[in-house]
Design brief:
Shape: globular
CATH class of the largest domain: Alpha Beta
Structural class: alpha/beta
Strand order of the largest sheet: 2-3-4-1-5
Mean pLDDT: 89
Strand content: 5-15%
Order of helices and strands: HHEHEHEHEHEHEHHEHHHHHH
Radius of gyration: 23 Å
CATH architecture of the largest domain: 3-Layer(aba) Sandwich
Low-confidence stretches: none
Distance between the termini: 57 Å
Helix content: 55-70%
Length: 319
């Protein structure tokens, strides 16, 4: 097993056919490749769903081996002001394509980090240099991209990678790397990833480096994630009115797994949604959990807030 390579990069898709779990998007993009022409594109969706990989694979399919000559990748979260649009982007856009390529591609990652002024400058640049340059923008939240840019682009929405597609690809990686993985280890990878394929591959590589067999226990430990059943036990214990017992379970989770308050809130939310309890109770639990989450993001003490949530659950039992 080669531990000196980062698997996320090693198994990055080289062509559109290799992109996992985004069949509808890929089918539409292949039509552009066949015609050897693309409009400006806007990719939106959660992290780790293949937006960057798809942009690079599209450039490879369009331009062949010399794709790097006519493709530039920029991260908008590094330089998000108007100057980067006026200088860096415009400089690249105004130069002619190299070789027989009909146009260049500027890939602007995390475009939703651009300021409103920078986006306003970008829309004009997209118009002025449309003959020699195409833009591919990627973002997590399409609502943060101004309407004039959205209307100039063909919008592609990426969804979390489906379980079956992720499972199949992870098994292929395990086979190529000679990694033994148990069925519960595979299920744990899919659970902790939440549709983020990059997170799943990184967790797999980390787990493979510390043991001969990758199982659920290793995955949960390396990602500082509690088992779903442990979270369910925490909620059920508190709902029975056993506050101190629930607090002990919380202690164990925070010490053994090193989980932060935000991690626990996020997992509690996932567990409440899937629990076999009445909808009216789910509404109460999630409403209060949202309040706790807000307090944590505002800088409140995570231990006090989590204890307050368990206390709230315990009072529900008495009612």
């Amino acid at each position: 097993m080669e531990n000196f390579e980062i698997w996320v990069e090693k198994y990055r898709p080289r062509t559109l056919d290799e992109v996992v779990g985004q069949d509808e998007v890929i089918q539409r993009l292949k039509g552009y490749v066949e015609r050897k022409n693309i409009p400006h594109l806007l990719f939106s969706g959660p992290p780790g769903t293949g937006k960057t990989a798809t942009a690079i694979a599209l450039a490879r399919d369009l331009f062949g081996e010399n794709w790097r000559d006519n493709f530039i990748e920029m991260n908008a979260s590094d330089e998000r002001g108007i100057d980067v649009v006026r200088h860096k982007i415009k400089e690249f856009a105004r130069t002619a394509p190299i070789g027989d390529a009909p146009f260049k591609i500027i890939f602007l990652d995390e475009a939703d980090a651009l300021t409103a002024d920078a986006q306003a400058a970008l829309r004009r640049t997209m118009e002025m240099y449309s003959k020699s340059c195409r833009f591919i923008l990627s973002c997590n939240y399409v609502s943060r991209i101004i309407e004039p840019i959205q209307s100039r682009c063909a919008v592609f929405k990426f969804r979390p990678v489906p379980k079956e597609a992720m499972k199949k690809r992870l098994m292929e990686i395990c086979k190529k790397e000679g990694v033994k993985i148990t069925e519960d280890g595979l299920e744990a990878l899919i659970y902790i990833s939440g549709g983020d394929f990059r997170k799943a591959i990184n967790a797999l590589q980390g787990a493979a480096a510390i043991g001969e067999v990758v199982d659920a226990e290793t995955i949960y430990q390396i990602t500082a994630t509690a088992r779903p059943e442990e979270m369910a036990e925490l909620i059920q214990t508190a709902l029975k009115g056993n506050f101190m017992e629930a607090r002990e379970i919380l202690d164990r989770l925070m010490v053994e797994y090193g989980m932060s308050g935000e991690d626990i809130v996020s997992q509690l939310f996932r567990e409440i949604i899937s629990m076999p309890i009445e909808d009216s109770l789910k509404v109460q639990l999630i409403d209060k959990l949202g309040e706790i989450d807000f307090r944590l993001t505002e800088g409140a003490n995570e231990r006090i807030q989590l204890d307050a949530y368990l206390a709230y659950l315990s009072t529900l039992a008495k009612k």
